[in-house]
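Student: Please help interpret what follows.
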Amino acid sequence: MPASTSTGEWVIARIGGAPVVISPTSLLLGLLIAGSWYPLVSAALGPFGTATVLLVVVATVLGVAASVLLHELAHGMAGTLMGRRPTRYELYLWGGRTSFGPADEWTAWKDLVTSLSGPATNLLIWLVGTQMQKSDDLSVPVAFAVWAVTLVNLALAIFNALPGLPLDGGYALAALVVQVTGGRLGLKAAGWGGLIVVGGVVWWWILRPLVLYGRQPGAFNLVLVIMVSWSIVDSSRQVLELGGGARAASRLDLRELSRPVHVVGPDASLSQARKAIAGGAALVLVIDGTELVGAIDEASLDEVGLGDTADSASDAGVTAGQVCTVLPAAAVTSELTGQAAADAMKRAREVSRWLVLVDSGTLSGAVPTGAR
């Protein structure tokens, strides 16, 4: 049985040390998709029996879930190859999110490659599935499931490559603008791109059938358009600072609130960490290579009974790696300004006393979240 996190998510695996988490609501969405897919499969494969129809429906849903996982793993692999390790994979049946840790050196073109690696993987799956469909050895039910998963991967590749946030194509567009211009207007361009994408989606699936053919959109199409458009419009609103709340959040800069951190290795002595805190560091970060092992502050030392033993014999032989507190992925962010930074602070407050800032691939400071 998958482990449950404090936020109700399920950790179904760990890949390269990064947890793969899934929200329980994704299972509900999977059931809804299976229910909407069942009539079509039943009409096509009814003569093969109800059991076969159900197996094809389940296989298709699992195939889509596996495709989403491979999409996110492609992001993680691309980031790792260029020096930035993933710290968390979040999976939803309609998509996912990969979070990354710090990097020694990171540039816009690496963001571009990392962003497009996901859609490229779905395109590769589509090509493989297309070739598989040419085989005469596949039974009709298997061929039907392969056709469905293949078609979904083509849709995932095209849709995720569209130039609007929070889609991969939006981040790729933002990175491209930064790489070409050297300015910071990339996210603005992707925000406007998102609104254009929503306009296209609404026209194609809602207004076009209604205006050109006099047909009302189906309930499934309507729900799908609302789900897709909502996330894109919300991301674009935040980036473009539309609305009073967004304008207020746009003025937030976490770097102005950050406190100094000190980095040590896992084998560093506890007394070394104490000296760093006494010297003004609010948080000692324990790093093993490029992996953030954990953190030490005065409160965490109190929690393990070492708060009042500074410069005593009890520190002898104790290393920073032994006493540090593991930081959840939500306690680390590279989103430093605007609404994205405010959202990061909100997520961190649920799991940690500190939000560690990654600025241009470097651990630059930590902001107290107010959590106990």
